[in-house]
Amino acid sequence: LSEETGDAPERLNRDLIWLVDPIDGTRDFVRGRSGWCVSVALVSSGKPLIGMLCAPARKEEWLGVAGKGAWRNGAALRASRRSVFSGARVPIDQLPQADSDLVMVDKPNSIALRIAMVAADEADLVATLRWGFEWDIAAATLIAREAGAEVTDAFGGPLAYNKRDPRAFGVLTCAPAIHDEAVARLADRAAELAPKTKG
């Protein structure tokens, strides 16, 4: 299943499926910036088994293997262990007033690379409140989870892959100790936006 190809319904009956995004972060790619990557995940029974991000402009290769760990350029990753929500680092261009207690850090256009930042302890929290596609996040969420991050949808529920509708509303990746507070902070916004942004 890929952003660049038509959907194949027979994928729903397969034990293994590849989820591929040839260029995640197209705007940065087009502008000659480094915040893009190739994202590939092997999925079975709704869960990623292997996830890889290749970010050539950054000379980075990220790998996650279910139950085995996560690495960047061969070095083991350990996700953010932040325990206090206020002051959490977020890769974002501008913080809403309601989140003024958070700290902005550099934001690549690629959602996969933003999620990977939590895996590498370069950010504490990444949250999206929009409908996105499985191929955008499957590899990165495995990498983050294997590095020790908490990974859910915007409401704090589990993510699943290779669904009939390959969309999911939001993704939340963060240090485990701040997950509950992050879900609570996002709850009203997520509830308001979820029915309005599908389609």
Short description:
This protein is an alpha+beta fold and 199 residues long.
Describe this structure in words.
The chain is built from four helices and eleven strands. With 199 residues, it is α+β, with helices and mostly antiparallel strands. It has one domain (9-197): D-Maltodextrin-Binding Protein, domain 2 (3-Layer(aba) Sandwich). A six-stranded antiparallel β-sheet has the order 1-2-3-4-5-6, with helices on one face. Strands 9-11-10 form a three-stranded antiparallel β-sheet. Helix 2 packs parallel to helix 3 (134-147). The model has no long low-confidence stretch (mean pLDDT 90).
Low-confidence stretches at least 5 residues in length (pLDDT < 50)?
Answer: none
In spatial order, strands of the major sheet run 1-2-3-4-5-6
Oligomeric description of these chains: single chain
Question: Mean pLDDT, nearest integer?
Answer: 90
Give the domain tally: 1
CATH class assignment: Alpha Beta
CATH topology annotation? D-Maltodextrin-Binding Protein, domain 2
Number of helices: 4
- Per CATH, the architecture is 3-Layer(aba) Sandwich
- Percent helix, as a range, is 10-25%
Radius of gyration equals 16 Å
* Strand percent estimate: 25-35%
The 3D shape can be described as globular
Largest sheet: 6 strands, antiparallel
How do the SSEs run, as a string of H and E?
EHEEEEEEEHEHEEH
Number of beta-strand segments: 11
Q: What is the CA–CA distance across the termini?
A: 19 Å
| Class by alpha and beta content | alpha+beta
